[in-house]
User: What shape does this take?
Amino acid sequence: MRYSHGVAESNDWRVTITPSDPSKAEPARTSFGAHKVEDDLRRRLGGRIVVGAGDGRVFLYAGSENSAREAKRVATEVLGQEGITAETALDRWHPIEEAWEAADLALPATDAEREVEHQRLEAAETAESLASGDAQWEARAEFPTHREAVAMADKLRGEGRTVIRRWKFLVVGANNEDDAHELADHIRREAPSDARVRAEAAGLRLPFAPL
Assistant: This one.
């Protein structure tokens, strides 16, 4: 993805512009980055807009709803001047889902609502792991010695877990984020105190964890 100059304080709001002709995405991005448009955006929004393009679309990132809505309005004007027809959508970043959601979708406001949303996300990640056969999350561990890594790998395999070992490193698949953190805690309890263990989204294609 390509971006224009300037950085928003936060990019929690996004305008997605999808030209009816995908080949018009780059000309549209260029138009938004043109000097006269940049000046207009800076004057109206204080420069808190980042412009990007990719996959036949243009993205305008903003730090607030008001800035995003104004950016959408300015973009519509520019598209009209350039004779580019396009659909526009306003989204905001969902911190629990870790995904872009429609701006009119209410975010969880209470601890109970956030917990329900979190559990829904965990269930979705597990379902994706089971459907694809690939773990969506993993626990990674680096041990001080090769011998300790081998011993932990053997122990985890004995528990029925899928483990990839590379010298002093282990990667163990998990079905969702909660499972990955629980697995990382489990490894920390069994590992030497100077082992480095963390949970993260899967970077390798690992079979899902059946436990």
Q: What stands out?
A: Residues 132-201 form a domain with the Alpha-Beta Plaits fold (CATH 3.30.70.270). Strands lie at 2-3, 13-19, 49-54, 57-62, 86-94, 99-102, 137-142, 163-166, 169-174, 196-201. The first strand starts at residue 2 and ends at 3. The chain has two domains: 2-102, 132-201.
